[in-house]
Design a protein that fits this description.
Blueprint lengths: L13 E7 L2 E7 H19 L2 E2 L7 E2 L4
Antiparallel strand pairs: 1-2, 3-4
């Protein structure tokens, strides 16, 4: 790869590795992160979205608690 090439995003590519005491204890792939973010949207954010488009940089959220 050179400075003008973008890396390919593959669902099986390791995105994060976690170490404890010098030993790898877990890792997450791009696909793992995408799956978790989709589940988080479905379980929480989708239900609470109530944005009203007001032609501003940030939308106004209405109807949340």
């Amino acid at each position: 790869m050179n400075g003008f090439t973008l890396p390919q995003n593959d669902v099986a590519s390791t995105l994060f590795e976690c170490y404890k005491g010098g030993k790898k204890v877990s890792s997450f792939t791009s696909g793992d992160i995408a799956d978790k973010s989709g589940a988080l949207w479905d379980s929480h954010f989708k239900a609470t979205s109530g944005d009203v488009v007001d032609n501003e940089l940030f939308n106004v959220e209405v109807g949340s608690g």
